[in-house]
Amino acid sequence: MTLLYFLGAVLILIPLWFLYPIKVLGKKRKPKGKLILVSNHLSTADPFLLAAHHNRQIYFLGKSEFTKKSKFVRLIFKWLGVVSVDRGKADLEAIKAVIKRLKEGKTVGIYPEGTRNYQSEDIQPIKGGSVMFALKADAPIVPVILLKRPKVLRRNIYITGDPVDFGSFKDQKLTSSILDSAEEVLYNEMIRLQKIIRYYAGLKGKTKKALKAKLNNPKIKISDIYDEIFIIDNNNNN
User: Domain residues of the chain, as ranges?
Assistant: First the structure.
């Protein structure tokens, strides 16, 4: 963690930790070393909240137009290690910066929906940038889903998933078809994780406590938890 990031955390992230109380489930599912965190995008505060509730420096991708409009935002981006991306073109400089950080063993944060989702809390179609970075840098992608749109002093939940398996796409030429297929795999994982966290939020008492223990146990796969909730239970009810 850089000194500037530490100062930014003290001045910005720690206050947000108190203003936006969030329970994080599955923290231990994140592997050590290089990592791409992807999440749904519901508000401007999302990157700060994700950074505030994870004990590692996250290098986010941010739209370059933000830095052009405000010197303050440019300073904040610098403090937090944000990689500015020009979305109007293939920004090779930004791509190289992201891959460099991953190869250095750092954590990169990406919102694959591409922009904030103001209309719905459902996950929108995603873009393939995060998948491309993962395959080029041989870095795991871990989805992290926020339950609902952040509001000051309203309790919320983040759920951390397992690293997404892109094994079938490795060592293949990164054509648009391959990236589309890998992108669909990631999208489906994010959807499953969102269904689990919504289900969890509706539980009470011992049932909720038991599911929480499973979600916090990295030895129990998220896919098995999903199957138990939505497939096995449904079959038993039919």
Answer: 3-202
